[in-house]
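ARCHIVE CARD
Drawer: 12
Card no.: 0347
Subject: one protein chain, sequence and derived structure
Cross-reference: see card 0346
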Amino acid sequence: MRPNHTKEKLLRGATVLGCALQQLRSTEVPRALAAAGFDYIFIDAEHTGIDLETIQDLVAASVQAGITPIVRVAELLYSLVARALDVGAQGIILPRMEDPRLLAEALQWMRFPPLGCRGFGVMAPLLDYEQRSFPEITEHLNANTLAVVQFETRKAIECREELLDVPGIDVALVGPADLSISLGCPGQLDHPDLVEAVLRLQEACQPRGIVTGIQCRNTAHARVWVERGLRFVGAGNEHTLLFERARESVAALRAAVPPR
């Protein structure tokens, strides 16, 4: 059965790097990002038009390429979480989390009994057609599903202790764009208030054994947080990487054109 390489690396204390997929709904994107060396792909089903069938195709391509597919669901609904997992997602990102009771319920959806309440709908392709018993399957998937909780508001940061005390969290992921808006410094991703909020979350995560992460808009910003010790760090998205590299290439070629 498929191991979750990103979760394995986190358990070893390593830093993992990811990239969001938001616009280019091609299975070549996970293959390219895997070849580039990213550990995980952040499939964004919250702020995009990506549907479940596309998620299924992207997940299959990701697993085959050796990059961990993690899906951010649009909202906190059992059907969205369970179906993403049933088509092969190896992790779920829960957005806009502020309520510990709702968080506890949502985390239950991600794991089979006795750890949760996920219903058994595992199809043969998810197991690569291996013949396994129910206990083997449920134990493996429970151990290899990554639970990521997003902290995106002032309220979430203020009640971080209560949220982080809910059992079952693997990663506390900062959404810096929404958090900057909530803190009153929209778009100022290096604002002292935002930096302080992330560091407070990191401090609260450490004694609980929870990994602190952040999804950044570009490589430069992501590098700053890697240097500050965050271990689950997303650097931009596929369409921005394509645009930036294309722009650099065009600028270099234009500069080489002989004057007339």
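Annotation on reverse: The domain at 5-256 is CATH 3.20.20.60 (TIM Barrel). The radius of gyration is 19 Å.
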